[in-house]
Recover the amino acids of this structure.
């Protein structure tokens, strides 16, 4: 639903700025040191942003390659009318072979055994072989390029093989060891790509968000292994790793907001919330926020995190509840029932991003975004009118 942000009066909601998403896509594309195609990674409901809306705006920008995690996500996109390549990055049971075929989906092949199982269904399914170059998650063994070549050639007669890919696992970390490891992965992938070059596969790709910026340089190796970047986290304006510098202008596309249902005075000696974990030491004003852990606010932020109110930080006090959270607003003037607050995003001169929240929790921004619950309604807004 596209609306004007001022009109939203909900308990807990997300505003996705489609023009910022578009900017992130375009800035990233321009920052790449060579011409490259972008495969937009829109798994997990586009990292919580809404996969159909994200796919639509990116299609509009010219993107026609998409990646998701599973067949349900892929079918949902097709049913919403999304065209182009949709690559399923993980395992789908061979039971769904006909669905893969009927919806024109592209399935990642995770192993030779899996290729055999899909082939046995007799559906000529579009697929891309995952090559394991050191992550040890999925794929055929990239240390054995000749075996890879034999397997890929064998199944290219039975399945419709249109690509190969690998995944870099430390491309976001700036150290000699990680750089050596990543070049090792890229070179292994290159050897496999060389061994199947006679198949002229159109989709040969190895870079994620971080890899695209750090490794997709003028290095000639990329002439033969293709220049498609699978762009995930940076599309949404967050860092693959908090130490990883982003091109200027890329910013979070999502703002998470909530409201205040009550503000009250609480006196020294009283306690706040379940478990009585917060002891009031001064005359305090406490605001009740209408968002809780069932909305995706991690309960480990109890007595630790904060919420932005009128351009100030209000510390979370007491334990976060399922649907409500308490915040200390003693030092913030004019806080009242009905005021809007920012759980993630910008308020006045302050910003608090999913990366900041993740750092507080010892996790990554990806997880914060993916945990934003379904019951938090998404609204689509545009920060400029040029959409
Ligand atoms: C999730 C994923 C990506 C996207 O990674 P980002 O770090 O978000 O850019 C790319 N490739 C594969 C195989 C993935 O699973």
């Amino acid at each position: 639903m596209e609306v004007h942000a001022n009109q939203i009066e909900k308990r807990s909601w997300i505003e996705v700025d489609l023009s910022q998403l578009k900017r992130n896509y375009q800035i990233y594309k321009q920052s790449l040191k060579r011409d490259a195609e972008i495969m937009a990674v829109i798994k997990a409901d586009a990292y919580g942003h809404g996969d159909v809306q994200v796919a639509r705006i990116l299609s509009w920008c010219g993107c026609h390659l998409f990646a998701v995690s599973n067949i349900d996500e892929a079918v949902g996109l097709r049913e919403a009318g999304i065209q182009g390549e949709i690559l399923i990055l993980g395992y789908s049971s061979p039971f769904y072979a006909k669905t893969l075929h009927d919806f024109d989906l592209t399935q990642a092949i995770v192993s030779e055994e899996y290729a055999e199982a899909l082939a046995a269904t007799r559906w000529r399914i579009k697929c891309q072989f995952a090559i394991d170059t050191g992550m040890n998650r999925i794929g055929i063994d990239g240390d054995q390029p000749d075996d890879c070549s034999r397997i890929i050639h064998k199944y290219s007669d039975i399945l419709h093989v249109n690509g190969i890919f690998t995944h870099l696992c430390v491309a976001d970390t700036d150290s000699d060891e990680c750089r050596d490891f990543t070049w090792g992965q890229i070179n292994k992938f290159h050897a496999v790509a060389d061994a199947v070059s006679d198949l002229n596969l159109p989709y040969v790709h190895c870079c994620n968000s971080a890899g695209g910026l750090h490794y997709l340089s003028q290095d000639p190796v990329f002439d033969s292994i293709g220049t498609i970047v699978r762009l995930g986290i940076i599309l949404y304006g967050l860092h693959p790793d908090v130490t990883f510098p982003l091109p200027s202008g890329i910013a979070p596309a999502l703002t998470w907001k909530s409201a205040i249902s009550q503000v009250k005075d609480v006196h020294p000696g009283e306690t706040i919330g379940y478990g009585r974990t917060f002891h009031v030491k001064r005359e305090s004003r406490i605001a009740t926020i209408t968002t809780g852990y069932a909305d995706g606010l991690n309960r480990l932020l109890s007595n630790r995190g904060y919420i932005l109110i009128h351009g100030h930080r209000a510390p979370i006090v007491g334990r976060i509840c399922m649907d409500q959270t308490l915040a200390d607003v003693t030092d913030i003037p004019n806080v009242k029932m009905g005021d809007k607050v920012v759980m993630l995003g910008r308020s006045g001169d302050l910003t608090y991003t999913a990366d900041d929240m993740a750092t507080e929790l010892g996790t990554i921004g990806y997880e914060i975004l993916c945990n934003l619950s379904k019951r938090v309604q998404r609204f689509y807004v545009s920060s400029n009118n040029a959409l």
